[in-house]
Design brief:
The chain is mainly β. The chain has two helices and 28 strands. The termini are far apart.
């Protein structure tokens, strides 16, 4: 009796493994300021870039090969979405070992991102006399990094409070702080805002009693809100910064825009009430004659108040109260013939 064992084999012509890159760096976590063409409100478009360092062993290209391409995974943990970018040999990004993520995909505001990079190269193997390409095995996991994009911030204001609404990053352990100042600091630095802060609220999270969590059906995402009701005066402009206090994730540093965060302004309203007085309508409002602002609690006096009227979407100044007249707090409009008088 004769036994025959048949064995098929593949001949590997260039056999070695693929090792990982030495390091992955995330930078340029910032934003480009734009404008909503419908509302005129400022909007932010996040930016993010990465670069990487290749190991020295690739230089000799003997024991380990340099890659034919890199695969970069951009995972938005907040939205539970993922994108894969491929950087091929011969491209500018491959040569420079760097890529601008925002040029490849649309980054979301207020999102927690996990980025990773893995190099690959092909082996040529002989399978039954035919040469085919096969990916070399990776010996190490991909290099990773984490980043948070700037938060989009909106407001709902009245005469003595401001509801601040911002993007929810989606992780309960992340906290936020709100800093606000009287005046327009949208073109100033973060430090200028801090130096003139009217108030600061720390340790806000989705679990805080005074933080409301909700789903925004227009933006199709989760939001958080907090209402500021201390040191808020009617008819004023306030600048507000909402900053995520996310520093580490599983012991790894989170890259975020720490130095130049988005600062947005909002105006508080002056509540008008109407009272009929015979042939007149009395418009009434309350604005403090003076108030103290900032960390130094400097006292400011009310020096001007402007009453405007609007018709068909167009506004014009009805009367401007200067000096002591700014705190009068009422104005009478005659019902008949459009005549107006002040008493």
């Amino acid at each position: 009796m004769t036994f025959i064992l048949s064995v098929s084999s593949a001949s590997i012509l260039f056999a070695n493994v693929q090792i990982a890159v030495d390091s992955l760096n995330i930078d340029n976590v910032h934003y480009v300021l734009g404008e909503n063409i419908v509302t005129g409100e400022p909007i932010i478009n996040p930016t993010m870039s990465i670069s990487w360092t290749d190991p020295d062993q690739w230089a000799n290209d003997i024991d380990v090969h340099s890659p034919d391409f890199y695969e970069i995974t951009v995972e938005n943990i907040t939205f539970n979405t993922s994108n894969t970018l491929t950087v091929y040999e011969g491209s500018t990004e491959f040569t420079n070992s760097a890529i601008d993520i925002h040029d490849e995909i649309n980054l979301e505001t207020g999102s927690f991102y996990e980025l990773s990079i893995q190099p690959y190269h092909y082996h040529t193997i002989d399978v039954g006399g035919e040469l085919v390409q096969e990916l070399a095995p990776n010996t190490q996991p991909p290099e990773q990094g984490w980043a948070v994009t700037d938060l989009n911030v909106d407001f709902i204001s009245d005469e003595d409070s401001i509801q601040v609404i911002w993007d929810d990053l989606g992780l309960a352990e992340f906290e936020y702080r709100i800093v606000y100042a009287l005046g327009d600091y949208t073109s100033e630095s973060k430090q200028d805002l801090l130096n003139n802060a009217e108030g600061e609220i720390l340790g806000l999270s989705i679990d805080s009693d005074d933080v409301d969590a909700f789903f925004d059906p227009i933006e199709q995402r989760n939001k958080l809100s907090y209402t500021i009701d201390e040191s808020i005066y009617p008819g004023q402009v306030y600048s507000i910064m909402v900053e995520p206090l996310a520093e580490y994730y599983n012991g790894n540093l989170i890259v975020r825009n720490r130095n130049y965060p988005f600062i947005k302004s909002v105006s508080t309203n002056v509540q008008l009430s109407l009272v009929e007085e015979g042939d007149y309508i009395r418009l009434q409002w309350e604005i403090p004659a003076s108030f103290k602002v900032g960390q130094s609690q400097e006292e400011y006096a009310l020096v001007e108040a402007t009453l405007m009227e609007f018709q068909d979407g167009l506004g014009r100044n009805l009367v401007i109260f200067d000096g002591e007249a700014a705190s009068i707090g009422y104005y009478r409009v005659q019902k008949l013939y459009g005549k107006r008088s002040m008493s």
